[in-house]
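Tokenised fold entry reproduced for everyone:
>
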Amino acid sequence: VQLVESGGGLVQPGGSLRLSCMVSGDSPYISRMDWYRQAPGKQRELIASIINGGETNYADSVKGRFTASKDNHNDTFYLLMTSLKPEDTATYYCHYGAKIPWGQGTQVTVSS
């Protein structure tokens, strides 16, 4: 199983990005997908989760601005990020399970 994140880039403060997380390989039903981010010099932090394709949870730092979703026709997960702030600058990862390798992540830079 491989996790491939994409959709990052450079965006101005207040802008939006939609990150994608594709799951390749033979994977069973994914009941929960987590989104993490890691800023330079900081620990990786959990920012969003989507459970059973519907229930979502968010860290306070992104609540109301980020939305996690899933395309139920394929194993693709999304993180819509709006009202981006410079402090959202980080490498973003999706991940599930205990034994799945981490992907490369996708870089998000929020700067004017």
